[in-house]
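quick one, 92 residues, struct below
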Amino acid sequence: MTRICRFVIGLFVALYVAALGLFVIGTFGLLGQERDPLSGVFLLPLGWPWTGLVDLFPEPLWPWLTSATPLLNLAVLVTLCSFLTGRHGQTR
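---
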């Protein structure tokens, strides 16, 4: 189970870093790219269902909160894997 958890978490982190990179490049027009308002579209499925709660905050924060929502899912994955492998509550 540990290998599967590490693989899933690693894959999620890699997808998040790639989507975050595309978001930053498209938002600020880096590397010669034009500014693209849809550059954060790959962050939406990674942050689902938390992206639906972003509307509760002021509109200027929406892009930044949307880019942070996958971190909540990453925390859920890490917690779930720690429970499944029996490492919860243990200190080293």
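The chain has a mean pLDDT of 90.
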